[in-house]
Amino acid sequence: MAQEHPHQSAADNYFLAPGMWATVRNGLAFLALAGWIASIAGFATNREQFHFSYLTAFLFCVSIGLGALFFVLVQHLSGSACSVTVRRLEESIMRTLPFGVVLFGLVVTGIHYTYHWSHESAKTDAVLKQKLAYLNADWFTIRGVIVFGLWTIWALVLFRKSRAQDVDGAIAHTRNLVKWSAPGLLLLFITASVASFDWIMSLDPHWFSTMFGVYFLTGGGLGFIAVLILICLALRNAGYLNNAINEEHYHDLGKWLFCMTAFWGYIAFSQYMLIWYGNLPEEIFWFKNRLVGSWEGMAIFLVFGHFLIPFFALLPRASKRNFKVLTFFAVWLLVMHYADIYWQVMPVLHKNGISPHWLDLATLVALVSTFGLIFWAQLRERPLVPVGDPRLRQSLAFHNA
User: If exposure means fewest CB atoms within 10 Å of the residue's CB, which of 140, 240, 256, 356 is most exposed?
Assistant: First the structure.
C-alpha cells in the first residue's frame, strides 16, 4: 500500500510501485550486462581503443554526478524553495559518485595506453620531465582516490541528513545541510579542477589551461540538468509527480537548461579567445590538434549544436514550458555533452579525424546503465521528494513570475 505524507498532493504518489521499480531495474541490468560483455570483448581485442572509449564514457557519467552534487549544494546554500520537489532526484543522481571510485580502477589500469607522461620517452622530454613528480601513476591514483573520497563524504552526508528529515521534519537538518554545503561547494570546485586536469588535460601533458576545471564542471552541470528533465518527464509519463513537478517547475528547469547552455558557451569561448589572443606555442597546439581533418567539422558542429541552436531555441518562454521541446533539447544537449568530451579525448588516439568504433557505444551503454542502476536503487521504497523539508509546501505552490 502506498505511503502518504501530510504535504503530499492528493493526486500524487511519492512512492514507486514495486512492479514498476523492478521492471526498470531489470531493463537497466540487461543493458549493463550486454554493455559489459561487449566491453570485455573489446578489452581483450583492442586495449588501446577500449581505454580511450572507456575514459570518454567514464568522464561523461562522472561529470553528470558532479553536476548533481553542485546543484544540491547550491540549493541548500540559497535556501531555494522552488526546487525542493526535484531535490530527491538530484540527491539520488549525486549518490552515484561513491561508486565511481570502483570504476576509476579501469582508468588507472589503462594509464600506459592513454597518458603519454607514463611512457619512458617522457623522461627525456625537456618539458615533461619537470612535471613527472606530479604526473606519475602513483600520484595520479592517489589524487583520484582522494577526490572521490571527498565527493563520497559530501554525497553521503547530504543524502543521509535529507533522508533523516523525511522522518522527523526537524529544521535542524536544514541548518546542518547549509553548514556542510558552504565548504562543500569550495571543495567541489577544487577537486573537480584537479580531476579534470588529471583525467583530461594531462592527455596532452604539454598543454595547460587555468579555465579547464570550470569548463569541465559546466559541461557536467548542463548534462545533469538534461538528465534531470528527462527523469522527471519519464516519471510524469508513468503517472508520478504530475502535481509535485508541474509546468512551473519544468519552466524553472528549462531556465536552468538555457542558463547552463549560455554559460558553457561563455566559458568555451573565453578559453579559446584567451589562448588565441596569447598565441603561445605551448597553448595553441591543443586547439590546433582538434582542428585537423574531420575534428574541425566536429568543433564547428559543437559551436552550433552545443550553443547557438539550443540557446536561441530555449530563449522563448514558451519553449521552456513545452514538454516536447524540453525533451528534445534535453536529449540533444546530452548528446552534445558526450560529443564535447569525445572531442576533448579522442584526438589523442585518432589524430587525423573522427574514427567511430563500436567500443565507444559498448562502454557508454555499460557505464550509463551501471550508473542508472545505482541511481534507481536509491528510489526503492523511498519517497521521490524530500517530504520532511519545511519548504515543500512552498515548492508545491511555486509559480514563475
Answer: 356
* Residues 251-305: tens digit of each pLDDT: 999 999 999 999 999 999 999 999 998 888 878 899 999 999 999 999 999 999 9
**Rounded CA separation 7/90 (Å):** 20
169 φ/ψ sector (left φ>0, alpha ψ -120 to 50, else beta): left
Grid cell listed for 397: 505552490
DSSP secondary structure of 264-328: HHHHHHHHHHHHHHH--HHHHHHHHHTTSTHHHHHHHHHIIIIIIHHHHHHSSHHHHT-HHHHHH
Rg from Cα positions in the chain: 21
Distance between CA atoms of residues 401 and 90, nearest Å: 24
How is the chain split into domains, by residue range?
Answer: 18-396
Three-state DSSP class for residue 248:
helix
Residues 6 or more apart whose Cβ sits within 8 Å of residue 302: 336, 339, 340, 343
C-alpha cell at 189: 570546485
- Please tell me the distance from the alpha carbon of residue 247 to that of residue 252, in angstroms, as a whole number: 9
**3-class SS at 393?**
helix
